[in-house]
Design a protein that fits this description.
Elements lengths: L1 H41 L6 E5 L2 E5 L1 H46 L4
Antiparallel strand pairs: 1-2
Helix pairs in contact: 1-2
Length: about 110
């Protein structure tokens, strides 16, 4: 039982670290996307906008570009929220495993 609890604690800790890294990465992407949206909205008039497609660029209407970016931003926000929920769950699981280990060691007969 002790080994199983230790394995649960280690697995939870690893998954928690991975989840936090993914959340930070997605948050960085979202901030870059927000800056891009702000930059596009600050441009006045009818300007040609180009989107990278492989090794070339395609001209895209401004409305389409803004809509694509807002959709991407919403997806990233949803991903960040789900990763935060997952991180909270994993943190709780890790804390539970740690407290179980503490209880086992505190209540074990002293020799």
């Amino acid at each position: 039982i002790l080994v199983q609890i230790q394995q649960t604690a280690v697995q939870s800790q690893r998954a928690l670290n991975i989840s936090r890294q993914q959340s930070a990465s997605k948050d960085r992407e979202r901030r870059i996307l927000q800056l891009t949206i702000d930059e596009i909205q600050s441009i006045e008039g009818d300007v040609n906008l180009y989107k990278g497609v492989g090794k070339m660029f395609m001209m895209v209407p401004r409305k389409t570009m803004e809509q694509d970016f807002k959709t991407q931003e919403k997806e990233l926000t949803d991903d960040i929220n789900s990763l935060n929920k997952k991180a909270k769950y994993l943190e709780k699981q890790f804390n539970d495993a740690q407290s179980q280990l503490r209880d086992i060691f505190h209540h074990s007969p002293k020799q």
